[in-house]
Amino acid sequence: MASSDRPAKRSKMENGGGSSAAAPPGPPPSKPVHSAAKENPYLSHLPPEQRFTRGDAEGSERGAGPLANGRSGNPLDGFIPRQVVGSQVRSVMEGGINPFSITPTPFSKKYKDILNKRKELPVYAQMDEFYEKFQESQTMVMIGETGSGKTTQIPQFVAYSDLPQTRKVKGPDGVLAPRMIACTQPRRVAAMSVAKRVAEEMDVSLGKEVGYTIRFEDATDRRTTFLKYMTDGMLLREAMNDHNLERYSCIILDEAHERTLATDILMGLLKEITARRKDLKLIVMSATLDALKFQKYFNDAPLLRVPGRTFPVETFYTQEPEPDYLEAAIRTVLMIHQAEDPGDILVFLTGEEEIEDACRKIKAEADDLASKSPDLCGPLKVVPLYSSLPPAQQQRIFEPAPAALYEGGPPGRKVVISTNIAETSLTIDGIVYVVDPGFSKQKVYNPRIRVESLLVSPISKASAQQRAGRAGRTRPGKCFRLYTEKDFISELIEQTYPEILRSNLANTVLELKKLGVDNLVTFDYMDPPAPETIMRALELLNYLGAFDDEGNLTPLGEIMAEFPLDPQLSKMLIVSPEFRCSNEILTIAAMLSVPNVFLRPNFAKQQADAARAEFAHPDGDHLTLLNVYHAYKTNCPDPSTGSNWCWQNYLSHRSLIQADNVRSQLQRTMERFDLDLVSTDFSSKDYYTNIQRALTCGFFMQVAHKEGGSKGSYTTIKDNQIVSPHPSSCLSHSPEYLLYHEFVLTTRNYVRTITDVRLEWLVEYAPAYYNTMNMEGEIKRQIMALEQRKGKKDKKKKDTQG
Ligand SMILES: Nc1ncnc2c1ncn2[C@@H]1O[C@H](COP(=O)(O)OP(=O)(O)O)[C@@H](O)[C@H]1O
Ligand SMILES: [Mg+2]
After folding, report:
1. Which of 87, 91, 218, 249 has its CA 20 to 30 A from that of 577?
2. Same domain for 267 and 123?
3. Per its database record, what is this protein's job (predicted)?
């Protein structure tokens, strides 16, 4: 990666139109020129009299700003794409008219208020430097402390430079759309929350000019959206059908330090795409100091470093390891509340259940304290934050701390209890105290037994430092680590391993093929995955029929890649019309793609279990999910009024609404590929077994076999892991074979969401996998016996016919 590989520094082909032939002759100036009424080389496709742009925005003659700007009154007159400088931009920002709303309108009062806050962000002070670097290089790396304004401000800066709203391109369907700016986020919550914030900052409507796209939810408008926040996974999916990402003028890969699977693949792809498309700009943003690795990877891309403006954070450790971190976290919050100066608290926990539990306990104790000694303890507002929380509730983290209960009384405090989201993705102002138990939920993959799980695992030193940093945003803070200093030094790894090294890659390998990457081994990964993991993925995709024996995508594989689902689920959907159950399989696929629909609150476990039993299907949980969905649709024809029924039945209304939405989106994909939506007659004895057959076609590699005679003990086929059905299962008996959706690693191994399947289906629908050559022991004997019986039957049939 010698620096000579870099694109010529001043090749000014970045004219956004994509056609380098239209570039003007002669070297363009390295700095924008602002003489008035200058011929604009970027308008060379227009007749000569239209090639002039008006003078610069520097200097005060623009006075009140845009409206004083003469002719058209558009504040952006005089802006030459990608030759914009900070002073021009600041002048429009301070002006009266919003150039980004669909029809230019005066800025609102709220806009001005927020602008004043934006001006205080460290990134804002570096606007001039940003434009210099942005213009002179195709790819740049940017690092800055969490909260410095990267995610919210940089895409807006780019908008002033790329003017995406004015430079529209025709899509394949003839629709004229802005050539967009994309900003990727590893987390759905961050994409939604930041898009909403930026729409407010820009004084435009969310979903119109500024939007977001996450899996199963698209809040953008093809014709008007020019700035799009999206999950990294969604951009990857778009690249599958648009190999050059032609719809974009600039891609911002945010939170690159998180090294998610999708971001890593995008980095490799964008390295190739930027070599092909010189007009495409790429900005890689990260919150850690490890910028060199990114710079090196992108052929020595220049770096913009936003100086942090953080205050010192004092770190405390426990003397002894804490046996119960949840209990210790709650205790620490209450201690801070009673003993420390005003300032909000941020607690890191690992998941929804734990967080809700902690919220309840802290709230109860704090209320008690406040009522017992109102002169010592102010009111405490406890706010949860995790990804499946509805957007309106997520916004609560930005609400201010409660006021004192009475004048002169102790001030109120806000405590946010969050997953890793708050580590770098979302910035919460006003945090002074951080409580860090040292754990997060992390994906782990063991290719040997083909099991991927989310496990509560110790965080890395880098994460611990990020967490501590959250306390010093507005003034000096304190971080309480609920582990010993010795453990911090000797037990925590330096950096979290990139996700690509700890994931099942089946989906990724399918996507890469669809992205046109032929050689999976020579692809330019920042950190290459283990060969065994790639082998496992290829093997699965080959058994599913997505890849042929040479490792090429089959027509079936092409369609599978179009579904935003794991390959097993897409396979089961695609074959379902053959079993006349595509309507039902569609429902099951949707129900499996949303958070658990069954609620089981601590205070009503028995009632919840009884409610669930009402929906139970004796043959398993997949069919139970189908029953739940049917009951929901029958009882709640209008989703907006369904919450009562759901609550009475201990079902999550939110998950069911989401399932309904996911279902219609998957249905659209089915229709796009002419996959029929059909059902077996409900009175037919095959109604349920047809569904089980279709399930088998997708999940035949996730089957467990009953161990000996003991009830409730199973071993997984091929990998021989001992597992038990999850206690939440509705399966009423212990079938010889059961198909599972999920392998849960805890102190015991469980299989969750399970359904009864028969060996003859496995042999019939997955003959390459279930044959005597591929299997051993008891399974092999059973397959042989099955074949013998079948042979006899066939012979008998022949004899009677003959
Ligand atoms: N939804 C929101 N409501 C209020 N303020 C917000 C919201 N989102 C972001 N901010 C503000 O924007 C600032 C910059 O955040 P951000 O751009 O996400 O920083 P970075 O990406 O560098 O971590 C934060 O300090 C916060 O005050
Ligand atoms: Mg950010």
Report:
1. 218
2. yes
3. Pre-mRNA processing factor involved in disassembly of spliceosomes after the release of mature mRNA.
* Residue 248 backbone dihedrals phi, psi, to 5 degrees: -120, 145
pTM: 0.87
The reply to whether 737 and 760 lie within a common domain is: yes
Amino acid 325 reads Y
The Å distance, Cα 428 to ligand 1 centre, comes to 7
Q: Encode pLDDT of 613-666 as tens digits.
A: 999 999 999 999 999 999 999 999 988 889 999 999 999 999 999 999 999 999
Is residue 104 located within the same domain as residue 179? yes
Question: How many angstroms separate the alpha carbon of residue 115 from the centre of ligand 1?
Answer: 12
Report the atom number in ligand 1 closest to the C-alpha of 429.
27
Residue 214 domain-assigned (yes or no):
yes
Rounded to whole angstroms, how far apart are CA atoms 414 and 168?
45
Q: Kindly state whether residue 243 falls inside one of the protein's structural domains.
A: yes
Interval 736-792: pLDDT, tens: 999 999 999 888 899 999 999 999 999 999 999 999 999 988 899 999 999 999 888
Query: In the chain, what is the straight-line distance between the N-terminal and C-terminal CA atoms, in Å?
Result: 73
User: Can you tell me the distance from the alpha carbon of 475 to that of 429, in angstroms, rounded to the nearest whole number?
Assistant: 11
Question: Which residue among 245, 274, 306 closes a domain?
Answer: 306
Determine what percent of the chain is predicted with pLDDT higher than 70. 90
Q: Look at the chain and report how many structural domains it folds into.
A: 4
Instruction: Name the token pair of 446.
Output: 């063991």
Whether the CB-CB separation of 257 and 288 falls below 8 Å is answered with yes
Helices 686-699, 582-592: crossing angle, 10 deg rounding? 50
Q: Residues 562, 563, 569, 573: what is their CA dihedral angle, to the nearest 10 degrees?
A: -90
Domain end point (choices 306, 326, 353): 306
Residue with CA nearest ligand 1 atom 12: 149
Protein residue closest via CA to atom 4 of ligand 1: 398
In this prediction, residue 290 carries a pLDDT of 80
Same domain for 110 and 228? yes
Strands 139-144 and 180-185: unpaired
Query: How far, in Å, is the centroid of ligand 2 from the Cα of 286?
Result: 8
Structure tokens at 574: 């695609």
Indicate if 239 and 362 belong to the same structural domain: no
Residues with a CB atom less than 6 Å from ligand 1? 121, 144, 146-153, 193, 197, 398, 427, 429
Q: Say if residue 7's pLDDT is above 70.
A: no
Q: Tell whether 101 and 212 lie within a shared domain.
A: yes
Structure tokens at 682: 């409900």
